[in-house]
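Annex B. Sample input.
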Amino acid sequence: MVPKAPADVAAVPVPAAFAPAHGVVIPTPQAQALVAYLLSLRQAPIAGAAAAGSGAGTPASAPPQGAAMANTSSPSSAAGASLFSANCASCHQASGEGLPGAFPPLKANAAVNDSDPTLHIHTVLFGAHGLTVGGVAYASAMPPFGTQLNDQQVADLIDYERSAWGNHGRPVSTHEVAAVRALGH
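Annex B, continued. Sample output.
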């Protein structure tokens, strides 16, 4: 636990019941190395596996998982991709497709592509539970990241989600994030 996370390290989202009273939890260098190693083990989907009826593969038309990070042409989009990888990919997947019935997709998600980013910002800051996305109900809870991420980090993360995987949501500003944060839950 530290008073404030260094600029190049994302704080670990900790459920409120276990969160420290003051400061944030950051991963140790060993934990960061372990995550980097595990991410390196990702395999590209087997082409045609879904078409063959196995039901376990990714559709052949889906981009390779590494393509999720391809939209990183600026420092803020690189920061957003890194924040997504560290905080969101375990549930929403590197492909942005989520896990059917467990975690909703961000790819082609109406809230992510909406011209008004308020719902998207609110969800990242304050979490969500019991959402219906694309007609599918998701009972799993998304933790709030507003206590771990500052306004710039939230804007970078959201901008990444709004521009990755073919999404077309407009970028958000730190002022918009701050305004939603100020309104509270």
